[in-house]
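SEQUENCE-TO-STRUCTURE ENTRY
===========================
What this section holds: a protein sequence and its matching fold, both as plain text.
Question of interest: how does this chain fold, as expressed in backbone structure tokens?
***
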Amino acid sequence: MARVEEVDGPDHLDPFGLDDPYPVYQRLREHHPVHLASTGNWLITRYDHCLEVLHGAGWSNDVRRSEAYRSLVEADPGSPLAEELSERSFLFLDPPDHDRLRAVVAPAFSVRAVARRRARVNEVVHALVDALAGAGRFDVVADLALPLSVATIGDLLGVPRQDHGLLLGWREEERRPRQEAMQGERSAGADGGITVSTSALEGRRAAQRSLSDYFRDLLAASRRLSSAPPVISLLAQGVTAGRLSETEAILTCRLLLVAGHETTVGLIGNAINALFDHPVELARLRAGPGLDMRAVDELLRYDSPLQMVGRFAVRDVVVAGTTIPAGAAALVVLGSANRDDRRFPDAERLDVARADNRHLAFGHGVHACIGASLARTEGLAALNAIVHRFSGLQPAGSPIRSGDPVVRSFRSLPLEFGGVATTSP
């Protein structure tokens, strides 16, 4: 196997922080599918190799089994970061704890349960679109994707609608340190350090406490009620039955809040951007009765909101002839796997009628996204409304990417339009 430097010259092949990482992914797949990035993470970029890591023995989803975590604890066992990493939601745990906790809330995310929520999702979407009539322009993220995703996951969790904005505010405060770090990484010179402000770190800790306190009160209230919305009721029943602790229930609520809106926001924004970049495909959708799940899955494949997931080697593991040592961190690059020509013919082309589309946008295996069906339902409703209810729809101004290499999305995606069609009664 050729060395990266021999193939690509002196330019590094780390895709982090790029507005368009896909050319880098392509070079990695072709020339160095198992690549040690400058961050110290191993990048796995081919479809079959990604599946191998997601399903194979020798891998953990728990950062506490990594060499980096062990070094952190040895250096400063009482640090806030070590304390934060010691409390993990089920997404970042291995079986059997992962399976035990996921099973508690799984009924609320079944295909049948999501189908019962479809009418409410459509109601929210059309209300948001109706509110834009006459405005002449809107932002896909701020005016549609974000309020839709927060309303949907808030309803599912059992959060009163008047509190949805409160939760979003805490969540944005919790994200501030990561946003500052990403901005610093983009602006730092070769010798420039990346710093995060004390106020951002303190704000994150305060927001985490506020979220935990809020969900603790919500759990306590639901245990006193004869009926409650699905997730909070399932968690309260689980705590009462001893299937999970109160802390585990609170961490589950926080996980679902984050995962429940970030993936949906990324899906809707990335999909609209891709359709404007491919006017022939957009015209195909406008000419038809509406998008179907085949189109949604192709848009998910083409520009996945979840670009990569982490795994930690619990022993030396060989992938594509390369040994990844025990304790090392690997990033399974789902966004790259979904553009692999070995799995998807003409993978760089968007085809809204693509068949046999077993993409990895929601991961795979035991850790596959529990909310995949819900995200697809929200995406389908929002994209159909945007494509079919707005006339004269065009980009307006410059879109702004989030800059997050893990969750690929937009912070702002402005559009202008001529009018809004009414919905059928």
About this structure: The first helix runs from residue 4 to 8. Residues 291 and 384 are 6 Å apart (CA to CA).
